[in-house]
Amino acid sequence: MRFSAICEIFEQIASTSSTNQKVAIVTQFLRQTPIDEIPLVIQILTGTLFSQGAPLNIGYIILWKIARQVVGASENQLEQARQAHGDLGGAMAALFSQRKTRQATLFMVDPPSLNDLVNLYQRLTITGSRSTTRKKQWIAAFLDRLTAVEVKYFVRLLLGWLNIGLQTPLVLRAIAELTNVPEESVRRAVLKHPEVGEIARIAMTEGLNGLARIQIRPLIPVLPMLAMQTDTFEEALRDFGGTVAAEYKYDGIRLQLHQDGDRIEVFSRRLTQLTNQFPDLIASWKDITREKRCVVEGEVVGMLGGKITPFQVFMRRIRTYEIEATASDVPVSLFLFDVLFVGDEDVTRLTYRERYAILERMFKPSEHIRLATRIVSNDVKELQNFFEQAITAECEGIMLKDLKADYMPGTRGTRMLKYKKTLETLDLILVGAEYGEGRKSALFSRFFFAAWDETRTKFTTLGKVSTGLTDDDNQVLNDQIRPLIVQEEGRRVTVAPQLVCEVLADEILESPRFEAGYALRFARIVRIREDLSIDDADDIGKVKNLFTTQRSRKNYAQGKHEQE
Asked: Can 249 be counted among the known catalytic residues?
């Protein structure tokens, strides 16, 4: 398939604001697509071709330089085009349109295919000396083969933001309509096998029965089950039948460890492979495991002198390229708390009590890998004491789990609850930034965040947040933002929605100023959530729940004060 064919579909999708029409366009396009091309087509439709897998380290600044080189535009000409067309992709398309008109008769080139895009991606993953120079040359050469509309979407694919209002949930709807299977069945299948293109292929060739046969298996990461917040132990005991399992809630990164024979891989909550970051954990697991095939889940933290390190110190293990040196500077421990697959069996349908019994038998605890600290209790006072012990041990709080519950990948529900020492935070998507003033005029110091809307198909803004980070962490965030800039206007920039931050606000206010209808008062960034993708970010429903909870607490406090 030619790249131009999918660009025409992008144009159709961008031309309508109706989600139903977007779904209809995608459905019809997939119906006309050969089955063997479906996985790749869906990867491009969801804008993830260049953003999944190995990082390319190609951002806005590099593409800006390439654009000037290829179209022969001055800095001012390119900036004027960007302001006129809204983003770098649109600007380059406009300039290419003029350039191609002048040069169309000079040479003929083969139109690029989707496989050409894949081949380019594979070349762009190179690292090492002069790799950036070579990447620029390859991208410039590829751009010379494109029409103006192809340039627009090629640049947007590289930046990871198609900007056509097509999110993954709409693609799942299209797959369901195309194959005449329930949308919920498609969603459940994606939770256990997150490669959407492969799910589409199975639905098209095997139907509902094929989707029903999909199960968790080693080396394919799974979206984790998530917890709701609770304010009282009484609520957990009531909901879970009078007895709960309580575990330390460690302040680290949630990991899945996958083993298939001698091959062991580690994945983050956002399904990113982190195997290279934790060679020490893999070596330790090989020494202690009693299994040949399994998927286990836990939280990895930095450990120094027997104590848990602050989260940002631990994150050096994720960001650095010098893993061996950092491994000795920041040793880690993995605290396991669940098992999803063992032997040849998907065990997610078993109860938590049954799964934990399996987990206990699977390995011999070591210094670097052990079970999460845990009790089973039916007593509020005992749970409170356990919570205080967790805080003393530098944990965020405790998890409360239903002993009778199965494991539902990718869902947030009441099978487990979290009880924390602080106000509930929000995981929000960074969509813009603003330069500071004075000595910080070269750095972004204010940031704009959004949550998903209730349909989780588009973003809804919540306003501006001050940094709250240390100078070092703010520099890290600045460095991550710069390659994602898609538009600049004065001191403010628009950012491709790829970063998630944990944000804490003193209060949530109703506000007509922002799309969400709410604003965050005295909000600050707690930390950069490099372990989360935008699909993990909170939706406006959570914001509303926090607003309601906050108002209830105020009313309770006011009533108590009046009684006194």
From this structure: yes
